[in-house]
Amino acid sequence: MIRSMTAFASCEMDVEGYTLIWEVRTVNHRYLDISPRLPEIFRSIEPSVREVVGKHLKRGKVDCNLFYRKQKQGEEAIEVNEARLNQLLKVASNIEMNMSQFQAISALDVLRWPGVQSELREDLEPVYEGAILLLNQALEQLVESREREGADILDMVESRCKLIQEQIQVAKTRLPEVQAQIREKLEKKINDLLEEPEQARLEQELVYFLQKMDVEEELDRLESHVKEVRRVLSQTEPVGRRLDFLMQELNREANTLGSKSADIQTTNVSVELKVLIEQMREQIQNIE
Fold first, then answer.
1. Is the model's pLDDT at 56 over the cut of 60?
2. Do 54 and 178 share a structural domain?
3. Where are the alpha helices (DSSP H) in the chain?
């Protein structure tokens, strides 16, 4: 299944008095680059976030943003640390005895003093589990989006493969005529230079020159690379890197075809091939 590396997904869920929102965005990248952005109280789940993302995605730069808000619940009881309170009052009393003037502290001042109110320890484990569950849902949506865009890329690459094959056939059909023209021009030039050319030497030079200008091998390799592109496109695992390599090979053969071309039509085929290959390459850069 061909997947694009560009996609976005967002999921929201209420769990244990919290509203959680995941936003996941991916863009193309050579490798899998995961960037989780988590609120401080969710820092402990970062390893799990990376593990979950790695199970769903193989390539791309991934931004995972978690947002949360605590839902309003009933009035929470205020718990007082009695030992801390008694310690504070005792110290305040001693200070009062040694001061000429003392301004009494209020009960609210006492409550604000660090440690007087006992910290309510909240069990966030269910919230953490909900966050990971929600991330899985967001990633499933993201993968579906990447597959839809990947299907469009697949259609485009398939159509360009077909056009490339047509251009290869044009060059192959033209090849015998081109070789005959090369032979005729070379014989004429040699005859013009020599009154009585040595036939054996002439044949040797013709063979050497025709081999140098022969593009049949390049056309065969182009056909072979196109077949390999189509085979790779049918695979289920990520294929972006292999397709990128095949684009380089196709482009190399198209360049060689142009440099060895002996007539304008073959040159035009080379140019058209490079345009089609570049169109494929631009899209393949975004395949996982």
1. yes
2. no
3. 46-56, 82-97, 107-112, 125-193, 199-213, 216-233, 240-260, 264-284
